[in-house]
Amino acid sequence: MWKELAVKYGNNSAVLFGLLNEPHDIKPVGVEKPTTVEQWDVWYNGGQIIVGGEEVTAIGHQQLLNEIRKQGANNICIAGGLNWAFDISGFADGYNERPNGYRLIDTAEGHGVMYDSHAYPVKGAKTAWDTIIGPVRRVAPVIIGEWGWDSSDKNISGGDCTSDIWMNQIMNWMDDTDNQYDGIPVNWTAWNLHMSSSPKMLYSWDYKTTAYNGTHIKNRLLSYNTAPEKLDGVYSTDFSTDDVFRSYTAPSGKASIKYSDESGNVAITPAAANWYATLNFPFDWDLNGIQTITMDISAATAGSVNIGLYGSDMEVWTKAVDVNTDVQTVTIGINELVKQGNPQTDGKLDAALSGIYFGAATADTGSITIDNVKIVKLATPVYTANTYPHKDMGEESYIDIDTTGFKKQTTAWNSKFTGTTMQITDANVLNINGETTKTKCVTYTRDATDTEGCRAKFDLNTVPSMDAKYFTIDIKGNGIAQKLTVSLSGLAYITVNMAEGDTDWHQYIYSLEGNVEYPEDITYVQISADTRTTAEFYIDNIGFSNTKPERLIPYPEKTFVYDFATYNKNTTKYEAAISTESGSEGDTIVATKEEGGLGFDSKALEVKYSRNGNTPSKAKVVYSPNDFFKGNVNDDERTANRATLKADMEYMTDFVFYGKSTSGKNEKINVGVIDTASAMTTYTDTKEFTLTTEWKQFRVPFDEFKILDGGSNLDCARVRGFIFSSAENSGEGSFMIDNITHTSIKGDIEWGLPTPTPEPTPTPLPDPVTVTTAEQLAAITSTEGNIILGADIDLGTTGFTTKSVTHLDLNGHTLTSSGPFVVDPRHEITIVDTGSTKGAIINTGTTQTSYGIRGTTEAATINIDGAEIDAGGQAILINVAGRKCNIKDAVINGGSYAINVGTNGGEINIDNALINNKADYKGYALYLQGGIAIIDDGTFGYNGTTNTLLVARSSELTINGGTFTNPNSGRGAIVTDKQFVGTVTINGGVFENTNAGGYSILDSNEGYQSIDAETSEIIASPVININDGTFKSAIGKTKPTNSSATEISIKGGQFAADPTVLYPNCIDTDIYSITKVAEGKYVVTEKGVEPTPEPTPEPVAKIVSSIEEINTLTASDDYVKLGADIDLGTSSIKTKCAMRLDLNGHTLSGGGSTVIEAMYNLTVVDTGTTKGTIKNVNTSTSYGIKFAADNWMHKSMGIQLGLTESYRSELPSGTDGTGYWNVTIYGLGYEDASYDVEVTKDGISENVTPSEVVDTSALQALVDSVKKMNATDYTTASWKEVEGELAEAEEELAKSAHYESMVNEAYTHLKAAVDALEKVKKTPSNTATPVPTATPVPTNSPDKKNDSAKKDTGKTSVSKPAVVKIKKAVSKKKKTAQITWKKVNGATGYEVRYSLKKNMKKSKTKSVKNVQKAVIKKLKAGKTYYIQVRAVKTESGKKSVGKWSSVKKVKVKK
User: What's the predicted TM-score (pTM) here?
Assistant: First the structure.
């Protein structure tokens, strides 16, 4: 690229070459955490680096400079430093022992290199500049290319905390006003002129400078130069010098414009029929009130020219003027100008003028010459204020659409969603007062798949003043349910919810104070349609005010009740917190929930007190809008309407409650309000009430309460609780409170009991229909809702849309599509998989909108039970309010989002599922943008670069269990986004970021709260409730120094770091305490409850790698790990204590009589990735491990077991030892274990010696067949097992003499590994894994005593039963698994074997009677088990067993 640019712009003195903008985060390949020096090396020389997870080649800056110079371009070049170009310390002399640091070497012809630093407040103040930039400015040219103060900047390191201080300090430093750098300034740019980027210098294109940035820069620039002459509102020039107009502009190919110092004028030469050119005003000209433009003009030929003014966005106002070859003086009045393309004068021309415009008119003139330009304006502009017709809006006027238009109105939507459209029109409708008025009507259709949305934008003619305190807008719907978002230049957002049938005007009043720091930054109002529907809405009366406007629209009549009942069937999530606050010493109070209430259940708040001081103790009831119960609705309806409850809280005007005395006498009590604005610690004044022994209703308007710290009125939206205390001066007493109510209804309120919702009667399924092709699936009718896949089906680019309530059984097959979705459920659907192999719904598309299941159009339930959903984009999308998706025992894999709950809502319930994000667009395992998610159990994994689970907007998340992990630094297992105002409740689970720089929970809130547009009060704040759970990584904030609005309440759990450091009020210290039980482990419990003691840490192994190190072992070395293969020669290891020996994948060998002589308890394990071995190479009588007593066992295996005591028993009469034996091991201090063991003649060992005539042909044939197999056809893990067994088999064959048992064992193990091979799944297929050619089963050695076993006994054999087909293996209870299978004809029983290994090594076997199910208990929690079943057939006392079934795996519930 630089080669081309260097040729095109080379040696143009107006062009500087910036080599690479803002280098940052340079990560060389193979370096996890590069040092600054390592980054500078790559900056200078280039090299291989990691960008976005990919390896790329970086070109060094020296090479970039060399390439530019090779093209003959000698322009000045600019090189930025590290850390987004701030850090230029590497250019200083002597950096990294380089004489000139990393400064670039230029050619003799080159005009040099400037070194660029971008200095923002977040980078620090003067100390940082002196350290990072100062040493460089002394030895090389420096330019401060980006710098300035943004409206969001708050506190700066070094103590500077205002724009006045920081801006002047850095400009003085750059100009070196204190002579610190010998009076030599650095170069700097004025940054920046774009109003949608920061730090901006202008509010709008009328060149009004921002107070915090632009004004400082403007004043500094004015101090350098003399401004153009300003006499009595006149700007003029005779072009004798070229320093008046800022610049001259003509587009290439249209015209050329040139100043001539010889003739002292400006000449314009047209180059096209539609030519134009401009004289551009200086930034500091104040053009408000402009009256006339005068100039001398002549042309090459007589004709006409359009002359006038142009403004922002190239809006042009002109007048056609006749010109000829003689010089003539032309004067144009401002009112003579007409906006091009519009026959009427705009009336706002002077708001944002940029220059004088010249353009083609009706007759060609050739070149024209301009001289003696003069602009006359009023010294004091006069404005006519707009009026707001029906509201007292204070000093600032509002924009009434009936009288005042906008500067610009636009609509926008994403063009790829062809079904999305929007338009703005004028409409005459009745306003709030019932008067016909002009409004703006916005009509839109938003496509069902649209993820971008559509929006109407209204650019304001004038921006509000800095004194503006309120924004207002009137909005009316057309009866269609819709959600809108009003944006004020992206600085603040207002949510508008309109219900079905709502056609009323709604008045929204939004407080700018505390929400928009600089109101003059607001240049437009934009309204986005968030609902995918077809609808319209009307807007009127947009504006800003210095005083709070009067509310003209009355509150709706609604009531919300908190009556101390619990409204969730599974958790206590919606219970308010009841606590107490101590008063004077000796003054006590107790507050509990007790029987005797009169609300929706029998519970009420009972308060018992004892007065003995001036300050009474208080009972506190703290809740959120979630805790309210809407009168006469059941639990399900309440859940569905939860978002509406939050929004409606703002309308409540009165506080109502029931109270009665329970002390037998009248009780005087004080009642006050807890204000949410100050972390629930600010109270109002109190009102006194007298309670009798009968329940009585009491009422007080909210605005009668005064906040104690300021005396202001209280609005209902701020209320988060109440305080109750005794008003008596002394003595004891008690009283009850119930039905705490927020209401807008005047008069007494009555509540009815909610009607419970009966359990729905399940609809019987129709007869099953088996489909094997896409055509058959498409032909399914509305009466055929019970579908079974009979084969893998590829739908191409289409999908399956339900036509009725559907039950879909994948039956071990795949349903695949590469289109927008695989399944679009328009009705309730249940998806199961009863096949013996794993079926799945798969979308092979690779875009973010490639869905497995797309639930966006109907509010019907989706049930996924035991099935797998896989998509290159989003596995499951739910985006309809009221739609539920229940996921159980399933696997959900998504390329971008595994599960996405959109902004329109929905509910997800997850139990025992594997949820995994397998790639990274900006994906998450679960993206909760709206609605509800309840997670009872599951494993949430992540393979991208962001966060595992993101919670956004007003959504609600409840986690009762599961595992949530994330691998990325600075990211979280659970993250709340910047505008999250919902609730996260955690009752259990494990949360971990495996990267040391990551978090369990990451709070991204930076002070955002949902603000009521009409009352300017807080509607909702983000809430995180932690009742239990294990948080192996810290809970953090994206910006730890910023103030988060998140309310975190912790009542239990285990934490890797103390959460009170970031959130000092997260624990109610009156009730709970936090204890550090170990390094990196903090436990929160109720006060007085001791945390569980920290378990004894795992011992640290001593690593030994040689005989010499083994000889240094002492009696204290009880845990030893091999660090290398060790040959003991003829010596042995004699243990000195009870020892745990880890072979760690190595071989411990010897040639003496014994390798290890165990004098104490010995445990041998092997945790290595390769196979470890204890080997004795002595061919005479020798042992691998010899224990301290004589109990010989498996001598042929090289092991002699000796116990301090041994037990033998005689076999029962009539048996030879074969058959099934039940063995129970009674472990001292451990749980007893029972096993069913099958003993065959092959399993009964006899004292034999190795023989050279043992038959090894079967083993040799099996080895030969395995060697012919192709390893690439099988999964890496399964082939690795085969390789290990193959090596052992070949080792056995290489021996000169064999034990028959060893040959048989090698054959059995190798055959089992081959049978367990898993094919690489290249395309969906049910092809079984091929088994090598059958080889003969090894026979006994030709010993006479074994020949008799081969003789025909004459008895009829029992036929083998068929292979079992497992239907399902699940784990619903802790440490148990349930297996079901299909019945095998003729079977009289079954055997189930299970193992932690795929090849079924070390498996355990359970026998069951003739039933098709089994329950296995005492399994290891959280582990994955592999299970097989075979049929047993017994006839006339003779037993036959079938082949083992295919392996089924199950993860055991924790």
Answer: 0.38
